[in-house]
Design a protein that fits this description.
By secondary structure, this protein is an alpha+beta fold. It has two helices and five strands, in the order H-E-E-E-H-E-E. A hairpin with a 3-residue loop joins strand 2 and strand 3. Helix 1 packs across helix 2.
Length: 129
């Protein structure tokens, strides 16, 4: 079965929203001062044609207020996907499984906000035959 790559779709969707902040799936070295990282951390399929990936989003910035402002923009933008086709496939719903919380970057102490979403998306070609 082939489900949409939700990390890639979210990255493409968020790039113009948070521009000039970089949106990545892997943290580059050196890490920019401001950064959004999206990573799939699990999820479940909802047969016959839905995938519900669980996605962590990390937002780095130079100060706590800047990290929270970036995280709020990302949070509102991800929630706005529910009931749309803005990612390409239909997004049925977006659930916030863990709300935003401070979790400073361990190696550097840089302000970072972390949140987790479940995004239910349609995958037309995922029907098992």
């Amino acid at each position: 079965m082939a489900y949409p790559d939700v990390v890639a779709l979210l990255r493409t969707y968020l790039l113009p929203i948070v521009d000039p902040v970089e949106v990545v799936s892997r943290v580059p070295l050196p890490r920019p001062d401001q950064l959004v990282q999206i990573r799939r951390v699990g999820g479940t399929e909802l047969r016959p044609v839905r995938d519900q990936p669980r996605v962590d989003v990390f937002c780095w910035a130079a100060t706590d207020p800047a990290a929270w402002t970036l995280a709020d923009l990302v949070r509102r933008s991800v929630h706005a996907l529910a009931g749309t086709v803005l990612l390409g496939p239909t997004v049925y719903r977006v659930d916030e499984t863990l709300g935003p919380r401070s979790l400073d970057d361990p190696p550097t102490g840089t302000p970072r906000v972390w949140m987790t979403f479940s995004v239910s998306v349609r995958a037309d070609d995922a029907i098992a035959r």
